[in-house]
Amino acid sequence: MSAFPTRSLSTHMRQTSNAASSTGQSPALVARVNEKRAELENLKELRDLSAAVAAQMEALEQKLATLSDGTEAIAMVMNSWHNVLRAINMASAKLPKPKPEESAASEGAVLLPQTLVRIPTEHAPTVQAHADGEAQEE
Fold first, then answer.
1. Chain-centre distance of CA 124, in angstroms?
2. HEC assignment per residue over the chain
3. CA atoms within a 13 Å half-sphere pointing along the CA-CB vector of 39
4. Could you give the CA distance from residue 127 to residue 120 in angstroms, rounded to a whole number?
5. How far is CA 24 from the centre of its chain?
């Protein structure tokens, strides 16, 4: 016969692992396994926290985009405001000046500027009610 044992390698490995488990694991190996489990838990917590930070950053990105759009709109209004004031000034210059006898008669009353633009108000209550309804829904 052969000088080598006749048992197969897998049977030998099974018997070795069974012997190790039956005698107990070394304390160093148990400590290392526990360290790895703790590290795994920390990594899972880090993953969850990172996902929460990423979601908050996406929400912040959307808010900043809205803020940027609003800033652009305000800049456009501010750029056109000079033209609005110039148009009001030009329109005011073309208005007839009050006659001296009219100004003497109305000294006790408050003089109001003449209306430059007339805005129809017949639909104002409907528009206001609609705006109030939207505000209450939010």
1. 34
2. CCCCCCCCHHHHHHHHHHHHHHHCCCHHHHHHHHHHHHHHHHHHHHHHHHHHHHHHHHHHHHHHHHHHHHHHHHHHHHHHHHHHHHHHHHHHHHCCCCCHHHHHHCCCCCCCCCCCCCCCCCCHHHHHHHHHHHHHHC
3. 6
4. 12
5. 55
Scan for tokens 């000046």, then name that residue. 97
Q: What is the pLDDT of residues 3-24, one digit of tens each?
A: 555 555 555 555 545 444 445 6
Produce one character per residue of 45-64: b if its CB has 16 or more CB atoms within 10 Å, e if not: eeeeeeeeeeeeeeeeeeee
pTM, entire model:
0.40
Closest CA to 97 of 114, 85, 110, 116: 114
* Rounded-to-10 torsion of CA 49, 53, 56, 57: -160
- The letter for the amino acid at 70 is G
What's the CA gap between 134 and 138, in Å, rounded?
7
